Amino acid sequence: xxxxxxxxxxxxxxxxxxxxxxxxxxxxxxxxxxxxxxxxxxxxxxxxxxxxxxxxxxxxxxxxxxxxxxxxxxxxxxxxxxxxxxxxxxxxxxxxxxxxxxxxxxxxxxxxxxxxxxxxxxxxxxxxxxxxxxxxxxxxxxxxxxxxxxxxxxxxxxxxxxxxxxxxxxxxxxxxxxxxxxxxxxxxxxxxxxxxxxxxxxxxxxxxxxxxxxxxxxxxxxxxxxxxxxxxxxxxxxxxxxxxxxxxxxxxxxxxxxxxxxxxxxxxxxxxxxxxxxxxxxxxxx
Length: 286
Known about the structure:
By secondary structure, the chain is mainly alpha-helical. The chain has a two-stranded antiparallel sheet with strand order 1-2. It contains 7 helices and 2 strands, in the order αααααββαα.
């Protein structure tokens, strides 16, 4: 006789609804893999590799793309890695894995997700230091080991901790930070007991929502500072151009707007990419 499981919002979902979620997840993950793969090939192309890898910018882009590809690959694997004998099997399609493959999937999705956020934040800091403070490549090389440690070492340590505490458990799409059975924390005063990941909600806040919020704040600060710096340079230039013409002023204002748009796009794309995945994987464990 199987263990009783708490009620869920997806209990009355049809097969077609579950299939739609599964296919949408794999489609988006596949597109992400293609995008990351193209960037990796562009940087590592033999004719350009030696030149590109001399710059920290390209090394950061390579690291970001590799980790995004890793996370996207395991997202594409989806339900295939989830254990076939789990209590939510009736709400899953194609769960052929085991608890070991489930843990591995959660590990690499979180690791790539966490690393991607840090790499994005480091890139925004790189832009700010390069434009506002005129840093040279020699200066960047001095801080690069610390940046790489934050972008790879910290996410790896967090992922290993969560794997050790059995915090990676199945949802419908994949294995991620989640109590098992789902909602066991919510109903733990009743007859339902958490069999794994009993601190899933806490760890979701610390290691999934927390990094995204911090990353958003860092990127927003850097892009705002960058825009203000460029704006101040243009204003100073206009004050000292006694022969400045209306057309010249329009041109400088256009440059400022372009920098502002880039900053908005950088922050906006970051939110657009990560927010839906974060919400669906934590607040709505489907």
